[in-house]
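Sample entry copied in:
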Amino acid sequence: VVFLTHMGFTRTYHGDISLRGVISVAAITGNVTTTVSSGYMPAALNWNPFLKAIPNKPSYHRIGILNLYDAVISGNPYPIKALWFAFINFLNQCANSNKIIEQFYPNVEFIVQTELFMTPSTRYADLILPVCSFLEFSDFIAQPYPNIQLQQKVIEPLYESKSDAIIVSELAERLGFGEYFQGGEEGLIDLIMANRSFEGITRETLKNQAVQLPPLPEGASFPLSFGTPSRKIELYAEQLYEDGEALPVYLPPIEAPITPGIKKYPLTLINGHSRFRTHSMFANVESLLDLNPEPLVDIHPIDAEKRNINTNDMVTVYNDRARTTLKARVTEGVKPGVLDITEGWWIEQFKEGSLNHLTHDIINPVQDKIYEPNMHMNDVAVEVEKNE
């Protein structure tokens, strides 16, 4: 048996437990560093040479997106005056859009967005910096494992657009840190490749062909420890005992018909992926909209019959947070009790609301304690009704 893990099954309040269970099975059966189980050297970002080179660098720390909500709104541990968004359609793709619009944005004095299009998020930016398309800059691609390759520039950037790497480099120059941002896009690629994962692999090699990362020798181990108190894989996590998650056992969703107080919303909303988009990218491409013109909510025939809903009926999906109006599609492609609205549709493409107006930003304290909380996009209780 091979577990192919992706992020979809972790997008619930207790999604971390599922992944811990998979890892525990691999550890118990000795399948941690074999050629068919995480057996490739990881291609990891290596920022240390860059960070160590900057004298008197300001303190910084990583913060999860859900933690950022509370930090901006509360001003704790300190007020956040400005935000720079890159590679993200923040408002469109992150949980609880109403909270972002009504509480988050008003508490930020200055927002910068680097973007190629006028997305829902870009409309809230104070300063928009035009970036070029992937055809106009070089980058490093390390997904999906175990293959790595270069994204090589095909044409020069058009008009006044620049790549994010060049924008950051030029900003650093103006702030007096330019000497640490030399080399442009290729310099950033070299920085990433200053890693033991890439021994024997050069940028020149990657310009001619993609390369597969070397597999670990059978039975070999990573020359590092794990982020646990014992520095080992822990099947029983003592530090999570008081949270009821010392062992990776089943716990119910945070929002589901069986959850107290949720009975008035008997359906679970999930957000699948569309073959016509990559997240919110390409949602504005006319030729794709000809094939897939508008958002739909998939509903099982059993649930549709109870509510007198037919395909192409205009319906409203709702909960205590918001109402979202769109057309229905009756299909056995979803389970009874489940609604599916594919993620990535832009807010303005809905008749009312949007997918993430319905989602929540509840933080799981266990995830917060271990690393950072995830967004529980597939753990959302709703009801749906036909529009008369």
In short: The radius of gyration is 23 Å. The chain has three domains: 8-39+219-240, 56-212, 267-386. The longest strand covers residues 323-330.
